[in-house]
């Protein structure tokens, strides 16, 4: 898979069924250093994945339509692609800051 230059691939670890939804923290998973996203939605029929996609978009300040699942539909470890961004370096900085929060 080729990633366009205005895109950013984000490894994510989803924690479904959390008591409190939040974005932040680091998890060393199969895709490297992943951003942790806890969602209230259960891991049923893609609801947790959709909630994680929307939470990631909100945390990065982009529209949900700009965030697409690239792999990991049935796994807690996912790759999302954020596309159509004016400044991928700025998004990378935001991601690093989110990974450092716990």
From TrEMBL:
The GO cellular component terms are:
cytoplasm
Please name one Pfam family that this protein belongs to: DUF167
Protein family according to the UniProt entry: Belongs to the UPF0235 family.
* Name under which the protein is recorded: UPF0235 protein Pflav_003170
**What is the species of this protein?**
Phytohabitans flavus
């Amino acid at each position: 898979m080729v990633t366009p230059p205005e895109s950013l691939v984000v490894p994510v670890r989803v924690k479904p069924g959390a008591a409190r939804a939040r974005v932040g923290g680091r998890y060393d998973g199969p895709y490297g250093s992943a951003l942790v996203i806890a969602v209230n939605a259960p891991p049923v029929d893609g609801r947790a994945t959709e909630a994680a996609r929307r939470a990631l978009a909100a945390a990065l300040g982009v529209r949900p339509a700009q965030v697409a699942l690239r792999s990991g539909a049935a796994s807690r470890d996912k790759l999302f692609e954020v596309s159509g961004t004016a400044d991928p370096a700025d998004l990378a900085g935001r991601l690093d800051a989110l990974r450092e929060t716990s």
